[in-house]
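lol forgot to send this yesterday, sorry. struct tokens for the thing we talked abt
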């Protein structure tokens, strides 16, 4: 009862093993290009088409993110555009302040931080920031 294995099935099984082996080497080598791998591991890469090997990590790495700031929102002079935000600290400071407001000048990227006990102090922080800018920079 000798069973004969068809040559096509053997070839397909070895190709799958070669592809798996090639992907393992690709990951271990720090996601080196498949062209360089074919020069280094010619025995492993022999007979494997470039279209058969795809690496998700390499594909994601090629994607780029669209730029965030549009040309119309950029500032052309200091204090023309100020970004502000209120943050909550995970810990209360020694003075009992848990929140802080940030004011960032879009032109110079200069940043001011004001500590607060309560969020309702934001407007007074902005008034202090506005007075500071008016007195020192204009």
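and heres what i got for the seq, position by position
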């Amino acid at each position: 009862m000798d069973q004969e294995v068809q040559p096509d099935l053997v070839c397909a099984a070895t190709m799958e093993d070669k592809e798996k082996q090639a992907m393992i080497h690709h990951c271990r080598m720090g996601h080196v290009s498949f062209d360089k791998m074919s020069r280094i591991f010619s025995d492993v890469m022999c007979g494997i088409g470039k279209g058969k090997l795809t690496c998700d990590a390499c594909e994601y790495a090629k994607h780029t993110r669209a730029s965030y700031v549009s040309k119309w929102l950029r500032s052309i002079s200091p204090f023309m555009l100020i970004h502000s935000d209120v943050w909550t600290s995970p810990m209360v400071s020694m003075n009992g302040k848990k929140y802080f407001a940030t004011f960032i000048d879009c032109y110079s990227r200069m940043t001011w931080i004001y500590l607060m006990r309560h969020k309702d102090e934001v407007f007074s922080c902005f008034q202090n920031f506005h007075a500071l800018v008016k007195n020192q920079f204009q």
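The chain has a mean pLDDT of 81. anyway ping me if u want another try
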